[in-house]
Amino acid sequence: MAGEIMVTVIGNLTADPELRFTPSGAAVANFTVVSTPRFFKDGEWRDGEPTFLRCNIWRTAAENAAESFRRGDRVIVQGKLQQRSFETKEGEKRSTMELTVEDMGPSIKFHSAKSMRPDKGGTRADDPWGDNTPPAGPGESDPWGSAPARPAQGSFSDEPPF
What is the percent of the chain with per-residue pLDDT over 90, rounded to a whole number? Predict the structure, then answer.
């Protein structure tokens, strides 16, 4: 959307994502990502000043994040950077920057990862590619299986090779 500040941050989780539910039942997970710049000076690597960014992620993504990530994991988060103002118990006005996460994943630079779809009993309402078809079981046809065989070289077909 216009006017929103979208950012991508790579860093480590300072704690396990904290999963909670709103009174209406929507899931929200809160966590902090720390990113520490490193630089090479005088023949050695040194750490710069760390940046801590408070994050929140909503609905199914919140449940997946809480299930998938733990303290110390290297993650990539992308979302909307927002400034939030509040007042302390002492009446002081403060503001903070927060990231409302749209998407999140592991950094494979330092970790290996296996992508799995959570089995939530069919297609989610917010899945734009869902067709309400249950996943193929063992021995059943897989629509995303191997590509169709291409015609032998020198042969001609009216069909495209894909």
Answer: 61
